[in-house]
Task: inverse folding
């Protein structure tokens, strides 16, 4: 039996582009994606298997990412790159094609920590932190989630008490905080009013060398192993009065939610990078793997699975593209973000799992990327809002009824 014809693609997205996605993007946008892809090929792919196996985040790569221009990418001023939302999305999917952990670093640093300062900070806070963070000279983390307050941040128990002299004193614990053990600055959200009243939540810029601030790495992870997740402890952390994020936009939960939406937007694209890489890995494997005298790619079951993967990935890119153009146009809504985060994560994890299955026994090794992607996507699917949170966000959009708690109100 002859070897099947292997069509090449002129699309910058490669062989998976079956609907002409390439035409949707400008030359500048494609150049940005290809520059990040070259970075991933040089700095991430040769090492990611060992980083993942050894549970190592490569701290030395941070300044390289700064030089690449992907830290705080969508923001302007203060040394930030000031690129479009679509360019940032394309960069995110290229980084996640390398590994979710490395894309997550860019998200925590840029969308969450830098985003909080850029959106809500004072001029002094912006000038002090943003140039260093966009260059990769300083690392930030974002302390919102707590051991008992994940999907319900209004129930956080971390407190900030202002004393007579103006100083703030913070006490509490945050959990599942990316980068905490290597961060130079933490954006910590705390209750300044009654516990359980989200209207009293405020954000604080906390240098991590402040007495009383400690961070402990969470170990034993089966996902996101080339990434850092931590628990933060704040014990009588004393801050000056000007440590608070002063903008009116930072009062209450709307402050952290704006930052979370920035991170969720990156996930809409990033998940497609993991899906595309899984597809490419299994396409190459089935083209070269011979069983029963013929390449696996020549069998009908294999081609049916590849076709379904390609259709799902193209649909995901179309969704990401629509959401990205809306973000650049200023018409993006929370329902759009929830739609993209919900569906693209579900699509990506399904493709990664199917690709692992098609690799047979070889698919459980770090020689091949799909199972690593699938494991990582378990975390990506969970953080920045679980499936259920986004389903309820869409449910509220569709019905006008909030159903996040048993006492749902109109």
Result:
């Amino acid at each position: 039996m002859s070897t099947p014809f292997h069509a090449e693609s002129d699309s910058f997205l490669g062989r998976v582009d079956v609907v002409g996605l390439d035409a949707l993007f400008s030359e500048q946008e494609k150049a940005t994606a290809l520059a990040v892809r070259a970075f991933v090929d040089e700095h991430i792919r040769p090492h990611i298997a060992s980083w993942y196996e050894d549970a190592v985040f490569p701290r030395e790569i941070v300044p390289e990412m700064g030089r690449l221009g992907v830290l705080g990418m969508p923001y302007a001023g203060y040394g930030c790159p000031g690129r479009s939302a679509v360019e940032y999305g394309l960069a995110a999917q290229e980084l996640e094609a390398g590994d979710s952990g490395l894309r997550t670093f860019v998200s925590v640093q840029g969308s969450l920590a830098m985003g909080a300062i850029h959106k809500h900070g004072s001029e002094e806070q912006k000038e002090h932190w943003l140039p260093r963070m966009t260059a990769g000279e300083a690392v930030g983390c974002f302390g919102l989630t707590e051991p008992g307050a994940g999907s319900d941040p209004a129930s956080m128990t971390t407190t900030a008490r202002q004393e007579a002299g103006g100083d703030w004193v913070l006490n509490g614990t945050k959990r599942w905080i990316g980068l905490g053990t290597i961060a130079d600055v933490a954006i910590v959200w705390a209750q300044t009013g009654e516990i359980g009243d989200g209207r009293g939540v405020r954000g604080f810029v906390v240098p991590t060398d402040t007495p009383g601030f400690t961070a402990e790495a969470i170990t034993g992870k089966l996902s996101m192993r080339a990434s850092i997740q931590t628990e933060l402890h704040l014990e009588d952390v004393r801050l000056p009065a000007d440590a608070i994020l002063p903008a009116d936009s930072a009062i209450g939960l709307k402050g952290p939610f704006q930052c979370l939406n920035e991170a969720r937007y990156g996930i809409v694209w990033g998940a497609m990078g993991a899906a595309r890489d899984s597809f490419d890995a299994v396409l190459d494997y089935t083209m070269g793997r011979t069983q029963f005298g013929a390449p696996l790619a020549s069998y009908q079951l294999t081609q049916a699975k590849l076709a379904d993967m390609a259709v799902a990935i193209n649909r995901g890119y179309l969704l990401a593209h629509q959401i990205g153009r809306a973000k650049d146009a200023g018409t993006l809504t929370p329902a759009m973000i929830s739609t993209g985060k919900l569906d693209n994560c579900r699509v990506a994890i399904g493709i990664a799992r199917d690709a692992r299955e098609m690799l047979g026994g070889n698919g459980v090794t770090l020689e091949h990327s799909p199972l690593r992607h699938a494991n990582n996507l378990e975390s990506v699917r969970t953080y920045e809002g679980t499936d259920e949170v986004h389903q309820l966000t869409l449910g509220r959009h569709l019905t006008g009824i909030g159903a996040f708690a048993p006492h749902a109100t109109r």
The chain has three domains: 14-134, 140-250, 255-399. DSSP finds eleven helices and eleven strands in the chain. Residues 1-5 have pLDDT under 50 and may be disordered. The CA atoms of residues 45 and 53 lie 14 Å apart.
